[in-house]
Design goal:
The chain is mainly alpha-helical.
């Protein structure tokens, strides 16, 4: 009885090994089509993520500049513009130039790609 079970099991193993030869052409085409759809969806999403990150970086630079200028005015110093650390981002005074009071502080940061953000109590 035991020999019969072993013989049946070995026969089943042999049959399985003989039929498994790899992927069919249809299976490979389906996988390539699915990958193509995923790539077509991922590329625009990635572009939007980059634009959002650039806008957030410009907004952060403007906010840091406004914070620095406000702190300098509160300490009785003449406010100075911060250096953004990125050559693509320029920082300028918004409004009428160098502010004299905290309420007049407005800092504008602009990226070469077109993103602009302003921050401070003097920004309208």
């Amino acid at each position: 009885m035991r020999k019969t079970f072993l013989r049946i099991a070995s026969e089943l193993r042999r049959r399985r090994q003989g039929t498994e030869r790899g992927f069919s052409l249809i299976e490979l085409i389906v996988v390539v089509a699915i990958l193509g759809v995923l790539v077509a969806i991922a590329i625009p999403v990635f572009g939007n993520i980059q634009a959002t990150a650039r806008q957030n970086a410009v907004a952060a630079v403007a906010a840091n500049g406004a914070t620095q200028a406000t702190a300098q005015i509160a300490n009785g110093d003449t406010p100075t513009l911060i250096q953004s650390g990125d050559a693509a981002v320029t920082v300028t005074w918004g409004g009428a130039g160098v502010p004299a009071t905290i309420d007049a502080v407005c800092v504008t940061a602009t990226h070469t790609a077109g993103e602009t953000a302003s921050s401070g109590p003097g920004c309208s």
